[in-house]
Structures are given as C-alpha cells and as structure tokens.
C-alpha cells in the first residue's frame, strides 16, 4: 500500500521471504531477500505502469502513477 502509488510503498508479508517485482513485460525490476515482514520500497524512479510483486506466498498486481 498504497496502491496505486508514486513514491514509497509498503509491502506486508506473512513471513520473511524473497520478493521479485516485474513489469508488465515480465522484466525483473527488483529482486531481493527481505529480512522483515514489513518492507518499504522507493518506487519513485519506476516508470508509470503496472507491476507484479511476487513473494513466496502470493503475487500482487501494483499500479505506479
């Protein structure tokens, strides 16, 4: 959250895991192992569009304005 957003977003996970963010073309934009269940990510430099945030337990569609 927030979704959509344009600056900082917070990703809440059920457990520590790896997250991968891909754009609508399937290109990996971000990939990292997360050491906490709440993670704040700066998406300010991401281009406007739709992104998919994948963790070990689910995939979430995210819009960047």
Explain what this protein looks like in three dimensions:
By secondary structure, the protein is mostly beta strands. The protein is built from no helices and six strands. The strands form two sheets. The protein has a four-stranded antiparallel β-sheet with strand order 3-2-5-6, with no helix packed on it. Strands 1-4 form a two-stranded antiparallel ribbon. β2 and β3 form a beta hairpin. The model has no long low-confidence stretch (mean pLDDT 86).
Topology:
Blueprint: E1 8-12, E2 18-23, E3 28-33, E4 38-42, E5 49-54, E6 59-64
Antiparallel strand pairs: 1-4, 2-3, 2-5, 5-6
Please sum up the structure shown.
With 65 residues, the chain is an all-beta fold. The protein contains no helices and six strands. The strands form two sheets. It has a four-stranded antiparallel beta sheet with strand order 3-2-5-6, with no helix packed on it. Strands 1-4 form a two-stranded antiparallel ribbon.
Defining key terms:
52% strand; 0% helix; two-stranded antiparallel sheet; four-stranded antiparallel sheet; mainly beta
Dominant shape: globular
| Widest sheet, order of strands | 3-2-5-6
Q: Assign the structural class, choosing from mainly alpha, mainly beta, alpha/beta, alpha+beta, or little secondary structure.
A: mainly beta
Reading the helices and strands in chain order gives EEEEEE
- Number of helix segments? 0
Unreliable parts:
none
Helix proportion of residues, in percent? under 10%
* Count of strand segments: 6
- Mean of residue pLDDT? 86
Rg (CA only): 11 Å
For the largest beta-sheet, the strand count, sense and barrel status come to:
4 strands, antiparallel
Termini separation:
13 Å
Strand fraction band? Answer: over 45%
């Amino acid at each position: 959250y927030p979704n959509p957003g344009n600056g900082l977003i917070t990703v809440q996970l059920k457990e520590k895991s790896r997250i991968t963010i891909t754009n609508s073309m399937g290109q990996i934009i971000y990939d990292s192992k997360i050491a906490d269940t709440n993670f704040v990510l700066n998406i300010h430099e991401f281009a406007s569009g739709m992104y998919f945030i994948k963790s070990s337990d689910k995939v979430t569609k995210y819009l960047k304005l």
